[in-house]
Amino acid sequence: MAVESASELKRKDVVGIASLQPGEIQLILDTAEELLEVARRPIKKVPVLRGATVVNLFMEPSTRTRFSFEMAEKRLSADTLNFSASTSSVSKGETLVDTARNLMAMAPDYIVIRHPNVGAPHRLAEVVPASIINAGDGINEHPTQALLDAFTMRQHFGRLEGLNVVIAGDIRHSRVARSNAFLLNKMGAKLRFAAPASLLPAGVEELGATTFLRLEPALEGADVVMMLRIQRERQAAVNFPSAREYYDFFALTEERLALAAPHAVVMHPGPMNRGVEIDSQVADGERSLILDQVTNGVAVRMAILYLLAGGRGAATADS
Ligand code: CP
Which of 70, 157, 173, 209 is in the most buried spot, having the most CB atoms within 10 Å? Predict the structure, then answer.
């Protein structure tokens, strides 16, 4: 299954992987590969978004996604405005749509949004003319994370097609798992989920993964092992007896990683809970691509911003 790259991203918004075509995913990854070079220059800036304004609207905590978007925007020479729920009039009861309409009155070109509610970016995309980029909506999707994960896998293995990818941990509350499932299925990878039954979502069979209730059999022959943290902030009930017991059955240790293919790599979207879902020796080991994921996130987000602008000008042209 060879995926042919689209010639352009003919859309206003990137709200999820579910709505992207395989050719568009390929185009984003190819463009990010070109833009990765910008980070190696003494002056890490290209002028392709000069004069454009990006609002970063983060209604949930974030370290990687927020700073990665801001760095991508600055490297493309855009003007950036940062907005957080706790210091804005959202704390006085203003709705998302009213907030967005007021921001639109200042004519931004893009809004990057992270929101606890499923579908918030999709709703915003319908009511404002700015391009909307989903930086994570509740338990639904985190499309830019899946794209940077795919970029990192492709950078390491030279392909996505046919890779055996294990995603293990709290699949039920993970927008990263959902976006990765959509993307890896579209690009021809083979997906396995490993989690206790209480941390698998209803309708998991629709996500195109082979499901395992123990980690060890899922790891056999895996090329990529992606660990997820337990999202306690999204769980009203306790879905496992204790962190200690979870570690005993589901943590990625060096012994368990030895069950994967000899060339297997380890990934994690962050934030990590060391000693719960992953051991420090594995997280910091030579097979870990965790910090490569963070580096690549900037190039992938630059590619999305650039392509949504219509890809005007050569992506890597100097100022
Ligand atoms: N991967 C990820 O979304 O991390 P942050 O929550 O720190 O943005």
Answer: 209
Q: Determine the distance separating the centroid of ligand 1 and the alpha carbon of 319, expressed in angstroms.
A: 31
Atom of ligand 1 nearest to the CA of 135: 3
Segment (H or E) for 84: strand 79-84
- Burial class of 169 by CB neighbour count within 10 A (0 to 12, 13 to 18, 19+): buried
Distance 1 CA to ligand 1 centre (A): 31
Is residue 1 pLDDT above 70, yes or no?
A: no
- Segments of 160-319 assigned E as strands: 164-168, 190-194, 210-212, 224-227, 265-267
Q: Mind listing the pLDDT tens digit for each residue in 237-263?
A: 666 668 888 899 899 999 999 999 999
| Cβ(298)–Cβ(71) below 8 Å | yes
Burial class (CB in 10 A: 0-12, 13-18, 19+), 51: exposed
Q: How far apart are CA 34 and CA 296, in angstroms?
A: 11
* Minimal-distance CA residue to ligand 1 atom 1: 269
Residues in contact with ligand 1 by the CB-under-6-Å rule are 62-66, 136, 142, 145, 269-271
Q: Kindly state the tokens that stand for 131.
A: 């391009």
> Which tens digit of pLDDT belongs to each residue from 189-233?
999 999 999 999 999 999 999 999 999 999 999 999 999 999 877
CB-CB contact of 273 with 229 (8 Å): yes
* Lowest mean pLDDT across 16-20, 105-109, 152-156: 105-109
Per-residue pLDDT, averaged over 18-45, amounts to 95
Per-residue pLDDT tens digits for 126-137: 999 999 999 999
**From atom 3 of ligand 1, which residue's Cα is the shortest distance away?**
65
Q: How far apart are CA 73 and CA 76, in angstroms?
A: 5
Q: Distance between terminal CA atoms of the chain?
A: 39
Chain mean pLDDT for the chain = 93
Global pTM reads 0.95
Distance (angstroms) between ligand 1 centre and the Cα of 14 equals 17
